[in-house]
Amino acid sequence: xxxxxxxxxPAYRAARFAVVDPATGEAFxxxxxxxxxxxxxxxxxxxxxxxxxxxxxxxxxxxLRVAADAVEAAGDDLARLLTREQGKPLAxxxxxxxxxxxxxxxxxxxxxxTRQIVDGRPVRSEIRWRPLxxxxxxxxxxxxxxxxxxxxxxxxxAGNTVVLKPSPFTPLATQLLGxxxxxxxxxxxxxxxxxxxxxxxxxxxxxxxxHVTFTGSVSTGRAVAEAAAASLARVTLELGGNDAAVLxxxxxxxxxVDRLFWAAFRNCGQVCMAVKRLYVPARLHAEVVEALAQRAxxxxxxPGLNPETQLGPxxxxxxxxxxxxxxxxxxxxxxxxxxxxxxxxxxxYFFAPTILTDVPPGSAVVTGEQFxxxxxxxxxxxxxxxxxxANGTGFGLGGSVWGTDLDRAEAVxxxxxxxxxxxxxxxxxxxxxxxxxxxxxxxxxxxGPWGLYGNLRPxxxxxxxEA
Length: 467
Ligand code: NAD
Fold this sequence. Notes:
The protein is α/β, with parallel strands linked by helices. The protein is built from 15 helices and 18 strands. Nicotinamide-adenine-dinucleotide binds next to helix 7 and helix 8.
């Protein structure tokens, strides 16, 4: 029990953690290192704000449209900060800011549909939809803003409030986004918390949170599901991928090679649904390896703020070490680097864009998620062999098939065990589509109306037609 006035005063917390610029490897800023015991007050604020926010969908639509405008207006500051802490080329940061605003605008105008059940009985059953309460959104470092918006836009549109936790590698642009949105949304409707673990773990298990929506690695996803089990909160998990691209024997290599290259190397390969394994008919293998190696050698690698840069650094030192480790293991197992194969000299976390050939199929760069600028190119002799190899992984996020005969390519794409299968491109998403992985790649559905309903619960009113 408090015994004096001093006991009522919260502890002064000045703890902060460093944020590193991956282009230099040097700390350039810091962020508040919020502690797990601060979450009670944060979730309480989100809960109090929920009562007003849930009341009026028309108010929410207007507010989220205004929020989208505010994000665009802050685009220069958001994009520069994102490039500093994440590493991606500035043009990609601008594109990410635009996608963040687009998500707000899309969900602003999406409303759940009330439905009546007609089953021949003289009763009226009506399904209405209710928000869940405070939602925890936990986000990784590869697309901090757009992945955050993919969570908070549908959650807010549905009438929930949100506690958003970015990765400690990329807290700054998210903090700025939080301030931009706080200026136009009602107080505490969206609260950003920053800090190192166990902040995320404690947020996922907090009893006041009714939905945990998480994007990140499979192992952390499992920990989040276990943590949320304590309060039986709903869980949506968007996890890792090891997407295969399968080229068919009628593919026009010259025509597709640029698209294919960037499907693997965009954002320095740090994309959950990047092409991470490439299966090529044996007779085209040498030609494809050579075409991709030429692209890899011609790419301008450098700091994201340099306007010439096409490929920035890897985001953080641990990730760079992991990419180096799996690449060296593959080379030790007998693989050959047709391009790259090593980190770049000098400061910063730069890894040369790498095309690997002669990779043993059991090598970690094939069986796991390299999540970096490294692509193994694997020959196949029969289409069944290629499809079996593509599906022979614990992941199931996306996959693609490339060929000139589109119907044939689509028929092969249908055989892929994944959430989204593309023909002649990869990792293209529409805001209106469901996004869901199978196997270890995820639980639940994000995107489109499914993303909205993922943040709502059905409420059924059942009454006789007549008194
Ligand atoms: P990560 O799992 O290490 O971290 C993700 C987030 O979880 C971060 O905010 C982190 O601080 C937090 N966290 C860490 N431990 C936690 C815990 N015990 N409880 C709760 N939260 C915790 O992932 P990462 O390295 O930041 O991101 C890369 C991974 O994300 C890759 O596997 C990638 O495929 C995946 N990813 C998936 C998608 C998708 O939509 N499926 C999209 C982007 C990235």
